[in-house]
Amino acid sequence: VNNTLTVDGIDYFVTERFGQELLNSCKEVKFGTMNTRAIDFIGGGAQTYQ
């Protein structure tokens, strides 16, 4: 954009333990205004960290 470099994507690696603990830490968080789980709204209903 305007002769500057931009990032259009990124690849990253997380260990299985980190991914699982991240999921476990937020899987029961409620999204107040919709009265539903945040993972359903933000994470598409993810069941695993993958």
From TrEMBL:
> Quick one: a GO cellular component term?
membrane
What top-level branch of life does the organism fall under?
Eukaryota
Q: Which Pfam families match?
A: NPC1_N
> Under what name is this protein listed?
Niemann-Pick C1 N-terminal domain-containing protein
List GO BP terms, alphabetically: sterol transport
Q: Could you cite one Gene Ontology molecular function of this protein?
A: sterol binding
By its UniProt entry, which InterPro entries does this protein fall under? Answer: NPC1_N
Q: Which residues form the Niemann-Pick C1 N-terminal domain?
A: 3-49
